[in-house]
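Hi C.,

You asked whether I'd gotten around to modeling the 82-residue construct. I have! Everything is below, sequence then structure, no commentary in between.
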Amino acid sequence: MASFITEYPQFFTATNLEWKKLLKPDKYKDIIISSLRFLVNNKRVMIFAFVIMETHIHLICQMMPDNDPEAVQMNILSHYQD
């Protein structure tokens, strides 16, 4: 199992399968923003910057102490894949 470093911000990217333009409608961007807001409000992650493009997202984020980085990543991806 990979070890996650939580003391520093990290760069994270999630890409749509086959680079499909699934994120073009604003309603899907709003779902991602709501998910990120939930993670921040629940002190699971600190978001420094993010970009949502039609085919993928980029985040610069830092996992907060006492949170499982894999669980936070899965939470981001589960909302992203819906």
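If it helps when you're writing up: Residues 26-41 form the longest helix (16 residues).

Thanks,
B.
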